[in-house]
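Posted in: Protein Modeling Q&A

I'm a second-year student putting together a small comparison for a lab meeting, and my supervisor asked me to include a predicted structure for Aminopeptidase. I've never done this before, so apologies if this is the wrong subforum. The sequence is pasted below exactly as I got it from our records. If anyone can share the structure token output, I'd also love a short note on what stands out.
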Amino acid sequence: MSTRIRARNIGIPFKGTPGAFNSITDVHGVEVGHRTIIEDSKSSSTKQNCIRTGLTVVLPRGKNIVGNLEHQNLFGAWYSLNGNGEMTGTTWLEESGFLGPLIAITNTHSVGIVRDTAIQWFQQQAKGSGLFDCNYSSLSLPVVAETWDGVLNDINGFHVQREHVFDAINSATSGDVDEGNVGGGTGMVTHKFKGGIGTSSRICGDYTVGVLVQSNYGFRHQLTIAGIPIGEEMLDELLPVHAKNIEKLDETGSIIVVVATDAPLLPHQLKRLARRVPIGMGLVGARGGNGSGDIFVAFSTANHQAMGKQTGVVQLEMLPNEQMTPLFESVAQATEEAILNAMISAKTMEGIYGNKVYAIPHERIREILKKHNRLTDN
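Accepted answer (user: helix_wrangler)
Welcome! Here is the predicted structure, written out as tokens:
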């Protein structure tokens, strides 16, 4: 893995204590994998077939699942700030409180194939063991979400294929997570700078909260870093260069957020966590505009013994509501930092029709923060 530059590396201050990797993978057992697809058509001088896309998977119990798949489910919940987007599997998630052991994020036009392949992967994990029950809905209705990458990607080319999904799953690891122009975030734009995948975590007493975002939203003037309206000072700097489809940048785009914790929370409590994601988004300038698909999913890796079909009374652990406030703050803090990690890690990208979106300039951010006495060197 190449040397990474993240938000803290350039002096952006944050509250809270991150985990060892400052990543969703600080929640024990969670793995993340990407499949990035970047190709240029050699036969097209106009870049009409320019591919800038991919997918990202979050595997709450890792890719090497042992035993009955039904017992690898988790308690989960979802929430939408503004629903101009898609996240499959949420009807059953809302009804049952159970989440399958895979979450995927891709572009808007690839949700179907990623969803179908996720089910195929579940089947392959149980092949020959008889441990896959298609009637167990969390496995037949996986959670797959999307944001629109058509400014840089030939989104109508349907370039994400079945093998790419397996590649992402097989590449999943714990530890450091690649950010920026990777996986599902390859072609994404944030506050009219290059966006993409970002992650962060917080230690919260005995528990850990981790967040992963696919960031693709926001107007330039809204961008806020460390409480400073940086976007207002950069209104005319490094604006996207375009030929076609740039009108899509006039809307506010979308953001998908995955929240993980090892705290023993029940589904209604996990929904409470998901509802705190917009607080962190607002710290960076998100406003949940009409055209934005701001959709979030949260899960807990605890209560493993309660998963799968059960008989009789099941014993559960539950953190009292009175002890949840620090978790709420951790979600907001990690969401803010994950979005900025996505932006700081991203690189300038040229895509379809010659459209070009610039990376946010690190030295310019440092200059503005220093002027406002908000710069810190970690």
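A couple of things worth pointing out for your meeting: The first strand starts at residue 31 and ends at 39. The chain has one domain: 19-308+317-372.
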